[in-house]
Amino acid sequence: MSPQTTFTVDPWGIAEHGLDLGGQARAESVFALSNGHIGLRGNLDEGEPHGLPGTYLNGVFELRPLPYAEGGYGYPESGQSVINVTNGKIIRLLVDDEPFDLRYGELRHHQRRLDFREGLLRRDAEWTSPAGRTVKVSSTRLVSLTQRAIAAVDYRVTAVDGPIRVVLQSELVANEQLPGGAEADPRAAAVLEAPLVAEARMAAGTKAVLVHRTRYSGQRVAVGMDHLIEGPEGFHVTAECAEDQGRVSVTTVLHPGEELRLTKFTAYGWSATRSLPAVRDQVEAALTAARYTGWNGLVAEQREFLKDFWETSDIQIDGDVELQQAVRFALFHVLQAGARSEERAIPAKGLTGPGYDGHSFWDTETFVLPVLTYCLPDAVKQALRWRHTTLPLARERAAQLGLAGAVFPWRTIRGEECSGYWPAGTAAFHIGADIAVAAVRYVRATGDVEFEKAYGLELLVETARMWRSLGHHDAAGRFRIEGVTGPDEYSAVADNNVFTNLMAQTNLRAAAEAAARHQTVAAALGVDTEETAAWRDAARAMYIPYDEKLGVHPQADGFTDHQLWDFDATPPEKYPLLLHYPYFDLYRKQVVKQADLVLAMQVRGDAFTDEQKARNFAYYERLTVRDSSLSACTQAVIAAEVGQLDLAYDYTAEAALMDLHDLGGNTKDGLHMASLAGACLALVAGFGGLRDHGDQLSFRPRLPAGLRRLAFAMKIRGTLLHVEITHTRTTYTLRRGSSLNLLHEGEPLRVEPGRPASRPMAVPETPERCLQPPGREPARRQQQSGPAVGSGAEPPHLAAE
Ligand code: BGC
């Protein structure tokens, strides 16, 4: 089966018909279930065949040495890698003498469907063993959004012919063997052999528990399982365990039409501090609660949680059913990544795969949190509180680098810098401002003053201190920030990166304003008026380079003077460039991996005129190769703003289909969470024209010809605003709350309950379509009609990260 036809187009789910053994790893990422606390890849119940088995717990990692050919001062000494913990998904089935293994026998039917409204992964299979016995297997799996330690599966096997002797082995498997060997791609994960050391085990009745400890990071991980069993009279149950294995077996004989049903509850608990009995008991308690709720109860809770989510967060699209599916898929996975992460990080891949070693980057604050702010604000608070818990480490890092305040890590699991490559790691200081701005957005959107006092202010203060010490006033009084890396990783250690400087400016101003609002807390943090005045001065004097000759902003000082990358001499197979060319060459040429200046125009639109936006966008389009999946969504937003609506539509689809079409060829390592969240931003900030960097939300709606209608909702300061855009008008409706002031096309608009406000669609000019480097144009989005199966069109292979 070719990858693009595997999944059926369906607005509320992802279904796979048949089984593509070669594409399994990708499907496992797509079908991953998570609640942000635990994550299960969509591996088959029986464990094998698999692409990449994966069970992840947020924050559970192992330390590993970071070897340097040549070390240097301030280089991190060890890295952190997410580990595949004890696999509690496995239910093996023996049919007479044959293991139910889809590589053998005849697979008559196989279907999986992930339902976004139910939060369930359902599977149906009919299989004839090599010995000619036929069984039907159906399973339904969930990772609970309401009981965060719990995953469960309802597994049923029915004899089609027979009598058949069946054995079900429900397993806990620690230190699972992982496929692998040396990965040439630096973006994949390090494979750690047997990271778990056995500490305790028990098995009795229908239950088993295993406790392990990671060897170096010293985290204790407990997993327990318990079962409910229904079947013909006289089934037999045994439980046993070994160091790395817990097993509950059920055996019986099934006559044609008879069913054996096993409901498996699995609970995880982990801690770096709690004692063995404490972690074990936590898991047993979670299991007790899950059994008490029961399978039907868990399913009902899941539906209820998601009902509320979709009622307040759905993005509806008329005119492109595949994009509708993709954007719901995106929202569903963003929800899964953040829902219960609770003072832990949200990694670049969520908990869907080990890519990037399970690290969190600026992706979270820049792409994921802006989406969650307006649909699941509590998740944003939790994510920022996690950053706050890492402040002591960030202060230490700043001190080590000779800077004031806090320097947050470019990539990390626990808070320590794990990037061994300084130019595209620590030098990307903008992450400090990305965090600060996410906190400002959260407070503005929710009015959560308590958060601002307890966490937000300190994040702002420590990052402002960092900027003040990193930059300096030159002889002309301009505040300059030199030797930093902006979002575009094909430039590094440059002076006055416009994105960085504008974000730092927002950060410095916001810190001064928040300190003025909360003077006592600010004083306790050692902030005085002299310091806030220095922040204000730096913000006011922030230097933003501009190339008068070309009439565009250079991404950083001197960028527009660099030699142009020779795109004509770069064949398609040489992308992504980072895998085929040395960084030194990329750094000294005009070639852009991902939106940088264009992102600055989104997050600080107020700093550019409309004309500058159009000119800058056209200039950077010719240079941007989108070797990062974090680019298309931003290009979509600004393309829409400058009137390039079809181009914006193409980029939106690219961001949304990144994983469903495996455009980067690496969905197998986990989903691209920033691109998925970015697809939502492309719709809401692109076509909706939402900007939230001012005091009020502002909208400039536009719709490409390919879409008939776009509708979305936003939670803002206790209200629920619904926005509906068609080609003729935009209607704002307040579904909750008393009133809301916003800007539509720059004009104030007050929306009140029961009185939807409607405005006619502005007719923008249609400028000529901008050009991209040859071979790097986005696929043209065809206008879609009605529900269809597959897109039919061959998706381009982007070979992006
Ligand atoms: C991008 C970074 C991003 C990282 C993780 C890299 O390819 O250039 O901006 O943070 O991937 O997604």
Helix content: 25-40%
Per the CATH scheme, the topology name of one domain is Beta-galactosidase, Chain A, domain 5
Task: Output the structural class.
Answer: alpha+beta
- The CATH first-level class of one domain comes to Mainly Beta
Primary descriptors:
801 residues, alpha+beta, Beta-galactosidase, Chain A, domain 5, Glycosyltransferase, five-stranded antiparallel beta sheet, 18 helices, 30% helix, disordered N terminus, binds beta-D-glucopyranose
Characterize the structure shown:
InterPro entries: 6-hairpin_glycosidase_sf, 6hp_glycosidase-like_sf, Gal_mutarotase_sf_dom, GH65_N, Glyco_hydro_65_C, Glyco_hydro_65_M, Glyco_hydro_65_N, Malt_Pase/Glycosyl_Hdrlase. With 801 residues, the protein is an alpha+beta fold. Among the domains are: 31-309, Glycoside hydrolase, family 65, N-terminal domain (Beta-galactosidase, Chain A, domain 5); 344-544, Glycosyltransferase (Alpha/alpha barrel), CATH 1.50.10.10. A ten-stranded antiparallel β-sheet has the order 1-2-10-11-12-13-20-17-16-15. The protein has a five-stranded antiparallel β-sheet with strand order 9-8-14-19-18, with no helix packed on it. A five-stranded antiparallel β-sheet has the order 21-27-28-29-32. A hairpin with a 5-residue loop joins strand 11 and strand 12. Helix 9 packs across helix 10 (498-517). The longest helix is centred in the middle third of the chain and has 38 residues, at 276-313. The protein is globular. The two termini are 24 Å apart. Mean pLDDT is 95; it is low at 1-5 and 785-797. Bound molecules: beta-D-glucopyranose. Beta-D-glucopyranose is lined by residues 348, 356, 361-363, 487, 489, 593-594, 628, 630, 674, 801.
